[in-house]
Amino acid sequence: MAQSIAVSDLVVRYPSSGGKYTEAVSSLSFEVREGEIVGFLGPNGAGKSSTLKALMGFVPASSGQCEIYGHAAGSVAARRVTGYLPEVAMYYPYLSPLETMTFYGELQGLRGAALKKEAQSILELVGLSKWMKTPNRKLSKGMLQRVGIAQALLGRPKLLILDEVTSGLDPVGRQELRELLRSRQRQGVTLFFSSHELSEVENLCDRILIIDKGRLIDERALAPLQEELRQFAVVYLGEVELGDIARSVSFRGESRLASFDTRPKLLEAVDRIHSASGKVVDLIAREGSLETYFIETLRRAA
Amino acid sequence: MRPRIWITLAKGVVTESIRRKDVWVLAILGVVIIFAAAALGLVGITGLEIFMKDLAVTVLGAFSTILAVLTSSRVFPEEVKNRTLYPLLARPVRRGDLLFGKFLGAVVVSWAGFLILAALVSAVLFGLHVHLGAIAFQYLFVKCLGLAVVCSVGLGLSTVMTPAAAATTTFILAFGSPMLSRALVLTAQGSPASLPVCRVVEAFLPQTHLFDLGARLVYIDWSPVSLSVVGGLLGYAVVYSSSALFGSWLILRRRAF
User: Fold this and answer.
1) pTM of the predicted protein model
2) Is residue B231 scored above 60 in pLDDT?
3) In terms of residue numbers, what domain contains A262?
4) Residue B227: pLDDT above 60?
5) Same structural domain for residues A239 and A167?
6) A298 within domain boundaries
7) pLDDT tens digits, residue range B7-36?
8) What mean pLDDT value characterizes chain A?
9) Does the residue A162 lie in any domain?
């Protein structure tokens, strides 16, 4: 599968006081394959926005390489295939969403009736059909975020880079956005986005990248990670043999704790405990939390 | 050469100026001048013609320069301040195109404002039976060249300064151009050793006073300047504006946002 994004040993430095430099991104390397949805996670100040800005060419890389579909990041060719949503959505207050789309569309190289049709259909898609001609200054934060998402979708980009994509959206808006992004993925669009909303990441992503202090500290496919994070366990009393179906069995005082990979194995274990006249003290069955994993990963890296 | 992108960016600057009512404020000021001038005319002051022309030229020169400075020194930093620059830079637009498109927009706004005001003032003067003559066209053309120079300075400074600092500096350079030139001449006369430095400084300063043919418009017996002078001014405006824009592009092309 072709690579949408290839980042190799990226370093981004900003000048700070006293002629020194602050390193926002340090030797960062990762790839995003075509058609993937990849979440880019990290605490505040981890270097997420700096990485996205380097990918868009807003800040020059101090060293290393960034490529988008084989083109140097920030080049006109790279930007032609990329849709970008900035972290803070601000759009010309004196223009309406339709005028905003027309303006950006013309800069994208679109013209005339085709541009108008595409702009209107995207605005309808993001739920702004009623506010197409309302000046941006009269729109709420959530609506402005929708304008931002709409402008990122203009020109049918092959790659969407979205910084804090769900910022300002209500739960309904988030669900609509999820569906919209999934439909774009089905059309072959690659999505690379940063978010502090880990539930959104869990719902959307194929893979996650976690960075801290400008360095990549973890990179995981989400499905196996979620499998790994799931907890199925039983705490019981009695001499019951569960070693053949349990992942692990340990003693907790008089009771034992048995952990399982799947829910059916847990249910089978409960049956066996009852059959053997044992006593179930506690049952644990929960999906793993990405948030807990994220925090633990950051702690481990610190 | 990407004229379509320049036109789109310039249209954006013009739309902003119209919606922010900059041009309307100018038009209202023009109407106020019309009424004030008409009132003077009704009183029947003798020798009014020169006074009226002088007033018209002063107002035209000052207001159009103010519009040019405010528009050019704000178009770029406002984009940075309001964070509207990011979706703009995310488009397949080169920074040079961005700069030139914004320059073009600022020039169109200042020219349009100047010409609208000039039309209003001319209408008033015509109503008062004060005729400007064909030299008015030369005055308008040369003034437009001067406004382009002012816009290039305002835009250029705004890439390295805050909008307020850029506007203040451009005002000083635009309105203080004759004083600054005179000061340099006096410095060079007082200390001949400083002549090369004064020449270099003078070359960098925009000679906006060269584009003011107001006096020729006011005094009937003053003749129009020759075509070669107009050609020289056109050449100066093109070279100076291009140099200012090139310098701004050198700063902008590697700037981090």
Assistant:
1) 0.85
2) yes
3) 231-286
4) yes
5) no
6) no
7) 999 999 999 888 888 777 777 777 677 667
8) 90
9) yes
Note whether residue A296 is domain-resident. no
Best residue in B11, B85, B91 to probe A by mutation, most A CBs within 10 Å?
A: B91
CB B22 within 8 A of CB B70: yes
Over residues A265-271, mean pLDDT: 92
The CATH number covering residue A144 comes to 3.40.50.300
Q: In angstroms, what separates the C-alpha of A301 from chain B's closest C-alpha?
A: 29
Q: What's the start-to-end Cα distance of chain B, in Å?
A: 25
Contact B12, B107 (CB under 8 A): no
Sheet harboring A21-33: ordered strands across?
A21-33, A3-15, A63-68, A71-72
Task: Note whether residue A37 is domain-resident.
Answer: yes
- A198 lies in the same domain as A235: no
Nearest by CB to B256, from A58, A83, A99: name it.
A58
How far does CA B240 lie from the centroid of its chain?
13
What are residue A218's phi and psi, to 5 degrees? -160, 150
Token match 């569906």: residue?
A: A179
Residues near A85 by Cβ (< 8 Å), separated by ≥ 6?
A148, A149, A151, A152, A160, A161, A162, A163, A165
pLDDT-based confidence at B60, cuts 50/70/90? confident
